[in-house]
Specification:
Blueprint: E1 3-10, E2 13-21, E3 25-29, H1 36-43, E4 52-58, E5 69-72, H2 94-103, H3 120-132, E6 138-142, H4 150-167, E7 170-175, H5 178-184, E8 187-192, E9 195-201, H6 202-207, H7 212-222
Parallel strand pairs: 3-7, 3-8, 5-6, 6-7
Antiparallel strand pairs: 1-2, 1-4, 8-9
Helix pairs in contact: 2-3, 3-4
Length: 229
């Protein structure tokens, strides 16, 4: 069990005050302004100096960005230097990078290219390979498929599930999209205005939401489209 309690304040006003347990894969779901991004920034130690953080974590690893924690951002196009070859953006031996590329479904020849020469899906795989390079215990995913088309979105989510089974890392998936959350995660934590309004097993919450806010998120995600039935 890995239980994290997190409170973010500014001038003694609570912005986020939540607790969550990541047993395997947890979706942290909420609309814009709910506190999702602040939670990610807090875990990565990237909060503005004007904000105060109180955090407690009980589990089998410490929360250390760059060591036990890895991060996959929303937009792969801004995550890499456009003027630097892909191979120069890794800080591990090239042979290990080639192995990681094979595991994320990329040709090793792409290491000689520059980021603008790759597609969005390829770049996201590069960023995922980077996240895996330090063998993290937990990977933080910040809407990692937003910039992709629906078909590529499902492919990347399925890839992450496959990699989790292979490497054994845990997932915290920050998203507003219940559909993507359903594909990737076993558990869900719904937050609104920095507070948890509902949490539990994914299927239970989707089939029997108890909070009106959760129902709104479900309706918005599944009303007119479906990436996976």
């Amino acid at each position: 069990m890995n239980v994290t309690k997190l409170r973010i304040t500014i001038e003694k006003k609570n912005l986020v005050d939540i607790a969550f347990n990541i047993s395997s894969s947890l979706a942290l779901v909420g609309q814009s302004g709910s506190g999702k991004s602040l939670t990610i920034k807090a875990l990565l130690n990237m909060l503005p100096k004007s904000m105060e953080l109180e955090i407690e974590h009980e589990g089998n690893f410490e929360l250390i960005a760059g060591k036990t924690l890895a991060f996959v951002p929303q937009n792969p196009f801004t995550a890499l230097s456009p003027l630097t070859k892909i191979k120069k953006q890794f800080f591990i031996p090239e042979q290990k990078v080639q192995t990681l590329f094979a595991q994320v479904g990329l040709d090793a020849d792409l290491l000689e290219r520059f980021p603008p020469e790759l597609s969005g899906g390829q770049l996201q795989r590069v960023v995922i390979a980077m996240a895996l390079s330090n063998e993290p215990e937990l990977i933080l995913l910040d809407e990692p498929t937003t910039a992709l088309d629906p078909k590529s979105r499902v492919v990347i989510l399925d890839l992450l599930k496959t990699l989790q089974a292979e490497f054994g890392f845990k997932i915290l998936f920050v998203t507003h999209d219940m559909n993507s959350a359903k594909i990737l995660c076993e558990d869900i934590c719904v937050i609104k205005n920095g507070k948890v309004v509902e949490s539990g097993r994914m299927e239970n919450v989707l089939q029997n939401p108890l909070d009106a806010y959760t129902k709104v998120l479900i309706d918005a995600s599944f009303a007119n489209r479906s990436f996976r039935t």
